[in-house]
Amino acid sequence: MPIYLNIVPQAQLDWAQLTTLVGGANGQHVTDVSLSLQLPKGQRRKKAQQRQAAAWSLTIGRPTITPSEQTYLINLRETDRLLPGALKQWQQVIQQHPNRLISLATFDSGQPLAPQVQDYLEQHADSRLHLTLQQLADSKLTTTNAQQLTLWGLQNYSVQTNLQSLKYLDQRLRPTGLLLPSTQLSPNLPLASLQQTLPILQSATEVIRLHVPTIARQSWAVTTPLTWLTNLQAIDLDHLALGWGPLIAQYQQHQLNQILNIAGRHQLSRPVHLQLLTQIKQTQTPPIHRWSRLGLLRMLSPRVAHQLFY
Fold first, then answer.
1. How far is it, in rounded angstroms, from Cα 162 to Cα 38?
2. Are residues 67 and 155 in the same domain?
3. In whole angstroms, what is the distance from residue 206 CA to residue 201 CA?
4. What is the Cα–Cα distance from 106 to 171, expressed in whole angstroms?
5. DSSP notation for the chain
6. Which range marks the domain in which residue 279 is found?
7. Of these four, 28, 66, 201, 237, which has the most CB atoms within 10 Å of its CB?
8. Does residue 47 share a domain with residue 78?
9. 216 or 11, which is more confident?
């Protein structure tokens, strides 16, 4: 069951973050795992980094994948993290449900991981399985390892058929953090893109959802709002499968509103604010709340606001 980890940097590649991610993957000692890196345009590796990439068997550029029902690809940022046992859990589910889109619960990589794991375990503290695993683990392992083993033991999944559900679209369309069946990848589209994941979801009959987190990641609306906005704007609502147009239009509206709300709380540069606002003005489907667009104009003059929106 080959799994391809395709690493797509946020902007300029952070080699230290990449080293941590690759170390976490290799440390799980799972065979049939391939690593690829989409090196940002104009960025070059130092000689020591080239040697390290060779030692990791890290492919630079789009990976060459031989499609099969049990071969999968997952896109990750270099800042994402794999939890212990993630790869084995994925392989077990792939074996049971080959050629299905697999959605993953996640922790937030922008926050310390240990408190999130502790909070999750506390929420399931009354589970008999949790108590049994905790008793077994506490006798032999450190606190951190015991928590991670307990988390792994709580893993469960569901087979979901409510594909046209706005509530779950964010889980099923994200460019990173989805296990994508290789037989359904389009060779002419970027691997880490909404254009890649949307057709896979549209053609699916069911989605497998792992309910216990196996990775930590952040939303593209937080880390790269302009890139995510460009992904949203690339959707052609007029050429979607029957019944998907109105749903994806709603999804776009919610995502635009999320971008604006997040951007309003973060210290974005003036050029990024301007570009966000200009692109949103050109969007086929506007944000849900008109006021949310104006919230971004705190750094801009009333004259600019008037030019953009009135």
1. 33
2. yes
3. 9
4. 10
5. --EEEEE--SSS--HHHHHHHHHHHHTT--SSEEEEE-PPTT----HHHHHHHHHHTEEESS------TT-EEEEE-TT-EEPTTHHHHHHHHHHHSTT-EEEEEEEETTS-HHHHHHHHHHHTTT-HHHHHHHHHHHTTS-HHHHHHHHHHHT--EEEE---S-GGGHHHHH-SSSEEEEGGG--TTS-SSSHHHHHHHHHH-S-EEEEEEEEEEE--HHHH-HHHHHHHHHT--GGGSPTTHHHHHHHHHHHHHHHHHHHHHHS---HHHHHHHHHHHHT-SS--S-HHHHHHGGGGS-HHHHHHHH-
6. 225-309
7. 201
8. yes
9. 216
CATH number, domain with residue 130: 3.90.550
**Domain stop point among 196, 218, 240:** 218
Mean per-residue pLDDT, 62-85 = 96
pLDDT cut 70: percent of the chain above it: 84
- Residue-level pLDDT at 301: 46
pLDDT per residue as tens digits for the range 272-308: 777 887 887 777 666 655 544 555 454 444 555 555 5
pLDDT greater than 60 at residue 138: no
Cα separation, 108 vs 213, in Å, equals 10
User: What is the token pair recorded at 45?
Assistant: 């590796």
Domain boundary among 218, 240, 259: 218
User: pLDDT digits over 93-130, tens only?
Assistant: 999 999 999 999 999 999 999 899 999 998 887 665 55
Q: How confident is the model at residue 166 (pLDDT cuts 50, 70, 90)?
A: very high
Judged against a pLDDT cut of 90, whether residue 265 lies above it is answered with no
